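#struct-pred

JT: dropping the chains for the assembly here, can someone run the whole complex?
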Amino acid sequence: MKIIYKTWWKILTVILLLYTLIAGFLLGVPHLPILHETIRNTYFHVPMWIAMFTVFIISVIYSIKYLNTGNEKYDLIAVECVNTGTFFYVLGLITGMMWAKYTWGEFWSNDPKQNSAAIAFLLYCAYAVLRNSIDEEQKRAKISAIYNIFAFPIMVVLIMILPRLTDSLHPGNGGNPAFGKLDMDNRMRMVLYPAFIGWSLMAIWIASLRYRIRLIEYKKNEID
Amino acid sequence: MKKFLLFAIFCLSYLVVNAQQAQPIEMADEMRSSGKIYVVITTLVIIFIGLSIYLFSIDRRLKKIEK
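RK: done, full complex below.
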């Protein structure tokens, strides 16, 4: 937990993301029909989802830790990780819609991937509603921790598994592997993987800032 | 003569087919080579550096409050 107060990994985040911003535009990419230069969106759209997954996983870990120990701090970490994750969720959805408009033809074409992503988004909206509807602190922490632990695997099934079982316009579905030989080469991986790490760290950074603010609020409320 | 004509037609048709296959997919290569993509990259980098300085400043202020 001390690590969120350290500076070195924040500098690393900035360096990694600066690299992906510059290399993402300048390095060569495969010449593919329909996609053209929009293939570079891979460097920015996909990492939004990876960042979201990273903070959601952290929030599940801290929800479990909270249920084990009853330490309120863990509950605060879990909440702020979900809040940050939801933010990146929205960014992922919007950038995906934007990309879809120019490659699939419509912002929203009721593609299985899009639809189940929207449903899974509602899951996390429900988390916020559930939390805000309970006044008693311990009860709220406990119920939302349990909800969070169950919501995560359902979200994974909705986003990653169900669209794969049917035909979808989105790469990686309907039997075609995303990031495979067809749509990706090693030049792209050199930008994509640092982008995954960089944006994940960025999400953790924002979540840690939010957690620290919330911790101050929590302590203030305790004193009052 | 007939054989030569036939051969020529084959050659030509092969060329036509080949030209169709080799039609390059349109990319923004020219824009990059003309250098103007650097303008966009610089803009993005400026925005990103600004945002990260902003995040660092929030971090510093929080540190003060925590003490």
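JT: nice. Chain B has a mean pLDDT of 75. Chain B touches chain A through 22 residues (CB under 8 Å).
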